[in-house]
Specification:
alpha/beta; three-stranded antiparallel beta sheet; seven-stranded mixed beta sheet; Aspartate Aminotransferase, domain 1; 13 helices; Aspartate Aminotransferase, domain 2; binds pyridoxal-5'-phosphate
Length: 359
């Protein structure tokens, strides 16, 4: 007789370790290729002496540093074990039955349907438009009296597309104010939209108690291995998120490293200029070879290769570059170091690859 586990978990794929092979270039996880700055490594090393002690469960110093950085109150900020934990916690604070709906564009961040199902709620997926961008009008129209939570991933993972400030404000104006809207800005630091249309969710969300913004230290700040993300929003939402937080899940090293990253943010954010330049170079080279590549505002590019996506991913891996295929939708390729990107471009733009994959 086997142990009784929720039967619905059978439809969630078991965790499979990410592929890696010796010598291969990994452009599959949107990580930063830069290691921690010396000041960040030093803060981590010093903190290891205190690892016999529990971390501050409320991440007080980090919350205070972030509140100051964003010009909000400490009560507006909560830390999560990566912002993916906050995605799950947002479902937990908004949904309590299968009638409750969580709405998001598709394709988008693969965690949304999983955390929705784990939270016993129901996913409502609104297809992206023909430009691989969130169809905000269709999303607003899909809100029902069962909708509890809306995720808007901007820039969108995995397509890289983004909406500007005006479009987001129009969207938020169309959403009833009892529906929580999470603006997932994991790639915010790679956006290069004109100042007037720059979609800073923290500014846009001010005075909107149903809007919560998710940011992370995993991407531009280069701390994917330590797990720290945060939410900025109305104190009522933040208090609820603190209630469902897994105790002590944001560890000591993550807290001090995140503070050190914030202190070194000018240097870290400067790095994003190199990534953005590489991203644009990759897009131009792929487009010149005949690929369709939507404009990206993140640290990756999207190749909508449809049914050929898995084959393209396998062929790229064979050429020594790990990328991320998504079913029959497309392939996401992270912008890495110039020499890594060159290796990918050499594969993708080789005549035999183009002949096989560019229709
Ligand atoms: C990477 C990512 C996150 C969060 O990552 P954490 O490492 O959990 O902070 C959140 N949302 C999207 C869309 C992402 O791509």
């Amino acid at each position: 007789m086997s142990a009784r586990i929720r039967p619905d978990l059978e439809s969630i794929p078991a965790y499979a370790p990410g592929r890696s092979s010796p010598g291969a270039v990994k452009l599959a996880s949107n990580e930063s290729t830069f290691g921690p700055l010396p000041s960040v490594a030093k803060a981590i090393a010093e903190e290891t002496e205190l690892l016999n002690r529990y971390p501050d469960n409320g991440s007080g110093e980090l919350r205070a540093a972030l509140a100051q950085f964003h010009g909000v109150e400490i009560a507006n900020v909560v830390i999560g074990c990566g912002s993916v934990a906050l995605c799950q916690e947002l479902v937990q604070i908004t949904c309590s039955s299968p009638e409750d709906e969580v709405l998001f564009g598709w394709r988008s961040f693969e965690a949304y349907p999983i955390v929705t199902q784990i939270g016993h709620a129901t996913s409502v997926q609104v297809p992206l438009d023909a430009e691989y961008t969130h169809d905000l009008d269709a999303m607003a129209a899909a809100v029902t009296d069962r909708t509890r939570l809306v995720f808007v991933c901007n820039p969108n993972n995995p397509t890289g597309t983004a909406h500007g400030r005006g479009a987001l404000i129009r969207f938020l104006d169309a959403i009833p104010d009892h529906v929580v809207v999470a603006l997932d800005e994991a790639y915010y630091e790679y956006l290069r939209l004109p100042e007037a249309d720059h979609p800073n969710g923290i500014e846009i969300g001010r005075g909107r108690p149903n809007v919560v913004v998710l940011r992370t230290f995993s991407k531009a700040y280069g701390l994917a291995g330590l797990r720290a993300g945060y939410a900025v929003g109305d104190p009522e939402l933040i208090t609820a998120l603190l209630k469902v937080h897994i105790p002590f899940s944001v560890n000591r090293l993550a807290q001090v490293a995140a503070i050190a990253c914030l202190q070194a943010r000018h240097e870290l954010l400067e790095r994003t200029d190199h990534v953005v330049a590489e991203r644009d170079r990759m897009r131009a080279a792929l487009a010149a070879a005949g690929y369709r590549v939507p404009p990206s505002h993140a640290n990756f590019v999207w190749l909508p290769l449809g049914a050929a996506s898995a084959d393209f991913g396998a062929a790229s891996a064979e050429a020594g570059v790990l990328v991320r295929p998504y079913g029959t939708d497309g392939v996401r390729v992270t912008a890495g170091d110039p020499h890594e990107n060159d290796r990918f471009l050499a594969f993708a733009t080789a005549p035999e690859t183009v002949a096989r994959f560019v229709g």
